[in-house]
């Protein structure tokens, strides 16, 4: 403690010794009296800093139960560990000796399962004024087609370092720049580098390259908001200047930030501005192609990625183009592009996402055997009505208005399907399964009846939410249906059948509006569909004696005219698979509304499913019925050990 502080302490002690007790009791403890004196001295000795903030994800949603480690640089005694509340908020305070701590610097480390660690560095300066610290957390993993943060840094930061080291205008800050750059790029300690690079930007706030370089260090350290602030300031400086390369770099960086946030339209806008400044910039063309892939604008992505290849882009452009060509439906071109990317190296030496893409292309090549298979989409209506007896009272659509009606039906039904999966809440119901094996004369040869608790759980997917199913026995232990060893058939996965109509999957099928028909007293649109071998994204894998065959489907959907909810769905094989003697696979799903009163939600869920399969000269039939639906809340990772207690309805 400084000598001055010691003398002050002694003085205060002496004064207190000579104040009568009755007078001492009137001295205000919490603040200084207007006339000055003892209270004023005590206030000057201590100062309280409020440290508070909010943690959100990239969509601005609160991240609850995140661990927040607060370090103010005064040793372990002053570190604090907090947890965010339901609104993602945290709060604490520090009361420090004002004579020795004139300013406050805060370093936050925030962690939460499913997210990459986030860091924020805040210098509150002098005085008591503080402000809310906003912390944005990136998902722990990014999509296979997104540019990793490390890839952007490695592509741009080293060149920026060289440019800054040769910039005579910031020569007086050369020492801090060199030290920060070495810590960042050589020692790979971005957190340590931030302090030195911040000194450079404070000394030269109009240096756009300095701000961009600091932004990269902050990004690498996990300070998303801090990096965004520096990049935005650098972009303003670039826009006010005359250097096209600076503007292009700013557009490129801002675009990647928007891509990571899922704002693909904004990203494309930035990259289009960059291409106008330099139409042959290979990296910009590649990243515009990447953004179009993320937008699922396959044809445009193919075009820009081809331009990137011509301009000399990296192999990444070739890989992205293989994805675009596959989704565009040009399987042969995708196969050739993928082989160009792989070269002579063995596929097993590549990372898993690349192996998965190569496998998808290979499987799509196998689907070419479907050719132009006849389906319910192109079969004459009179013939179709004979083939499918359920259509006996169909009122055919007018040929003139059918196409316009179909577009509206698909759009509204697709949005309903999207809403169903996006807003799905975990459910538990009772499932009865009746399995049969039929003799050639149609009589039941063997049968088994089973009963389960059936759990449907929401899970994250790239397009939104998917559904995952589990079955448990009456004691709450996870189990699976039996019967396979007895020569019966196992079937599952019906809750996701309506995904064929999801906007993300409609491009994988051809649709045809047949007309209207009453179902259970309600008028329904009847829509036929058939998966496209070259574009289908939902492909079934039929396993038989160790051999897996890819299977595509065709079918019919009955859609309520008022609500645009699918009330009935039938799927059949698009083409029999003679190599495994699979001649028929018919699934008929009946949907009924389930009123979850507590949630104020009505969900259309399968109430009955009939599956008939003809395979190796044998006929199998399974009937699933579902009842007594309830909502429940749980966190399920790998297994379900026990049925959660349902919420009251």
Short description:
The protein contains 17 helices and 21 strands. The N and C termini lie far apart (65 Å). It has 649 residues and is an alpha+beta fold.
How does this structure look, described?
The relative contact order is 0.06. The chain is built from 17 helices and 21 strands. Among the domains are: 3-137, Immunoglobulin-like; 152-218 and 226-241; 381-437 and 446-576, outer membrane lipoprotein receptor (LolB), chain A, CATH 2.50.20. The strands form four sheets. The chain has a twelve-stranded antiparallel sheet with strand order 8-13-14-17-18-19-20-21-9-10-11-12, covered by helices on one side. The chain is 35% helix and 29% strand.
Query: Describe the biggest sheet?
Result: 12 strands, antiparallel
Mean pLDDT value: 86
Distance between the terminal alpha carbons, to the nearest Å?
65 Å
Report the β-strand fraction as a percent range.
25-35%
Under CATH at level 1, the class of the domain at 381-437 and 446-576 stands as: Mainly Beta
User: Which bin fits the share of residues in helices?
Assistant: 25-40%
Given the structure, what is the number of helices?
17
Major sheet strand order: 8-13-14-17-18-19-20-21-9-10-11-12
Q: Uncertain regions: pLDDT < 50 for 5+ in a row?
A: 1-43, 635-649
What's the total count of β strands?
A: 21
Quaternary structure: single chain
According to CATH, what is the topology of the domain at 381-437 and 446-576?
Answer: outer membrane lipoprotein receptor (LolB), chain A
Under the CATH scheme, which architecture of the domain at 381-437 and 446-576 would be assigned?
A: Clam
């Amino acid at each position: 403690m400084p000598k001055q502080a010691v003398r002050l302490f002694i003085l205060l002690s002496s004064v207190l010794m000579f104040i009568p007790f009755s007078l001492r009791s009137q001295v205000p403890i919490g603040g200084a009296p207007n006339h000055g004196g003892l209270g004023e001295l005590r206030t000057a000795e201590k100062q309280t800093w409020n440290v508070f903030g909010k943690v959100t994800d990239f969509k601005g949603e609160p991240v609850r139960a995140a661990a927040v480690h607060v370090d103010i640089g005064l040793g372990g005694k002053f570190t604090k560990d907090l947890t965010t509340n339901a609104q993602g908020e945290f709060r604490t305070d520090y009361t420090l000796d004002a004579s020795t701590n004139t300013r406050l610097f805060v370093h936050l480390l925030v962690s939460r399962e499913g997210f990459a660690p986030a860091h924020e560095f805040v210098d509150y300066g002098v005085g008591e004024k503080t402000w809310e610290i906003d912390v944005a957390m990136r998902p722990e993993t990014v999509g296979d087609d997104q540019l990793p943060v490390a890839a952007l840094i490695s592509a741009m930061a080293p060149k920026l370092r060289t440019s800054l080291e040769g910039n005579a205008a910031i020569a007086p800050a050369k020492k801090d720049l060199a030290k920060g750059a070495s810590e960042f790029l050589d020692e790979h300690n971005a957190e340590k580098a931030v302090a030195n690079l911040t000194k450079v930007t404070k000394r030269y706030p109009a240096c756009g390259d300095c701000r961009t370089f600091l932004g990269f260090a902050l990004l690498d350290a996990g300070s998303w908001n801090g990096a965004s602030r520096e990049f935005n300031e650098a972009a303003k400086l670039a826009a006010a200047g005359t250097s096209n390369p600076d503007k292009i770099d700013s557009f490129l960086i801002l675009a990647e930030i928007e891509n990571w946030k899922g704002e693909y339209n904004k990203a494309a806008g930035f990259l289009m501005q960059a291409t106008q400044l330099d139409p042959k910039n290979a990296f910009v063309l590649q990243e515009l192609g990447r953004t179009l892939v993320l937008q699922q604008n396959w044809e445009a992505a193919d075009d820009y990625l081809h331009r990137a290849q011509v301009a000399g882009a990296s192999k990444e452009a070739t890989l992205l183009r293989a994805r675009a060509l596959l989704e565009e439906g040009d399987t042969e071109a995708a196969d050739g592009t993928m082989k160009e990317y792989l070269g002579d190296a063995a596929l097993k030496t590549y990372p898993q996402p690349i192996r998965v893409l190569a496998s998808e292309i290979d499987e799509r090549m196998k689907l070419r055997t479907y050719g132009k298979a006849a389906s319910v989409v192109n079969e004459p209506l009179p013939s179709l009505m004979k083939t499918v007896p359920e259509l006996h009272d169909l009122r055919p659509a007018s040929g003139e208005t059918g196409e316009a009606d179909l577009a509206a039906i698909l759009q509204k039904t697709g949005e309903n399907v999207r809403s169903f999966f996006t807003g799905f809440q975990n459910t538990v119901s009772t499932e009865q399964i009746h399995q049969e094996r039929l003799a050639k004369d149609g009589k039941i040869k063997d049968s088994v009846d089973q009963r389960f608790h059936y759990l449907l759980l929401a899970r994250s997917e790239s397009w939104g939410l998917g559904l995952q199913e589990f079955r448990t026995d009456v004691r709450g232990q996870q189990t699976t249906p039996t019967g396979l060893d007895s020569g019966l058939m196992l079937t599952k996965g019906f809750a996701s059948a309506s995904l064929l109509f999801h906007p993300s999957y409609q491009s994988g099928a051809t649709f045809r509006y047949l007309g209207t028909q009453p179902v259970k007293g309600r008028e329904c649109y009847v829509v036929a569909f058939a998966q496209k071998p070259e574009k289908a994204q939902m492909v079934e894998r039929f396993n038989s004696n160790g051999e897996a065959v890819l299977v595509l489907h065709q079918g019919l959907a009955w859609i309520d005219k008022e609500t645009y909810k699918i009330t009935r769905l039938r799927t059949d094989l698009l083409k029999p698979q003679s190599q495994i003697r699979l001649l028929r696979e018919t699934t008929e799903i009946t949907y009924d509304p389930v009123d979850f009163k507590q949630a104020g939600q009505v969900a259309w869920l399968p109430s009955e499913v009939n599956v008939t399969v003809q395979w190796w000269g044998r006929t199998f039939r399974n009937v699933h019925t579902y009842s007594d639906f309830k909502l429940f809340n749980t966190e399920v990772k790998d297994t379900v050990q026990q049925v959660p207690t349902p919420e009251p309805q």
